[in-house]
Design goal:
- This protein has 192 residues and is mainly α.
- The relative contact order is 0.12.
Length: 192
C-alpha cells in the first residue's frame, strides 16, 4: 500500500513538472534522477543561465542609460547582478569559462554600483564605462546570442577621452550622453 502511494506521488510530481514546462534530460533510467534534480532546483529557487542572459541584462542597462532613466538603469543593474550569479559555468566552453571567471567579479561589482545608485546617473554611467569592456570580452569569447551585436564608441564622453559600449543595433543610442547627444558615436566592430 505504501509503495503504491509513493509511486502515485512520484508520478504526480513528474506529471506536474512536465506540465510546468520543465525540461529534463535523460541522465538515468526513465529520467527520474533528472526530474528530481530539476524539481529540487526549482523548489530551492535556483536557476541557471547562460551568458546570453548576462548580455541581455547589459543591453537593457544600456538602453535605460540612453533614455536618461536612472531608475530603470538601477533595476537593470540589479538584473545583471542576478544574471551573472546564475550563469551555469559548466555549460560554457573552455574559453568562455576562462573569460567569465576573469570578468565576473568586476562586472558584478559595477552592476551592483549601478543598481544601488538610482538618482545618480553620472555615477551609473561611470560604472557602465568600466563594465562595458568586461562584457565586450565575454562576447568576444564566443557567446552566440543569436543576434548581431555592435561595438560602439563615443569620442565625446568623459572630456573627450571617449567611451565604448555594446549595442544590439547599428543605430547609435548613446548611453553616456543620453538625450543630450543621443546619436553621438560610431560602430567600430560588428560582433557575432
Amino acid at each position: 500500500m505504501k509503495l503504491t502511494i509513493l509511486s502515485m506521488a512520484v508520478s504526480i510530481l513528474l506529471f506536474t513538472a512536465c506540465n510546468n514546462g520543465s525540461k529534463t534530460t535523460n541522465n538515468s533510467v526513465g529520467g527520474i534522477d533528472s526530474a528530481k534534480t530539476e524539481v529540487a532546483h526549482t523548489e530551492a529557487g535556483i536557476s541557471t543561465a547562460s551568458t546570453k542572459e548576462v548580455i541581455s541584462a547589459y543591453l537593457q542597462l544600456k538602453n535605460a542609460l540612453a533614455n536618461d532613466n536612472d531608475k530603470d538603469a538601477a533595476e537593470s543593474g540589479n538584473n545583471l547582478v542576478k544574471a551573472i550569479g546564475n550563469v551555469d559555468q559548466a555549460s560554457l566552453t573552455a574559453q568562455q569559462s576562462k573569460v567569465f571567471k576573469d570578468i565576473s567579479d568586476d562586472a558584478k561589482e559595477h552592476a551592483e554600483h549601478i543598481g544601488s545608485n538610482a538618482g545618480n546617473i553620472n555615477h551609473q554611467r561611470e560604472h557602465f564605462e568600466m563594465l562595458s569592456p568586461e562584457i565586450y570580452e565575454l562576447v568576444k569569447a564566443g557567446d552566440k546570442t543569436g543576434q548581431k551585436l555592435y561595438y560602439v564608441n563615443c569620442p565625446m564622453y568623459n572630456g573627450g577621452k571617449g567611451g565604448n559600449w555594446i549595442s544590439e543595433t547599428k543605430d547609435i543610442q548613446n548611453p553616456y550622453l543620453g538625450k543630450a547627444m543621443l546619436n553621438c558615436g560610431s560602430v567600430k566592430e560588428e560582433l557575432n
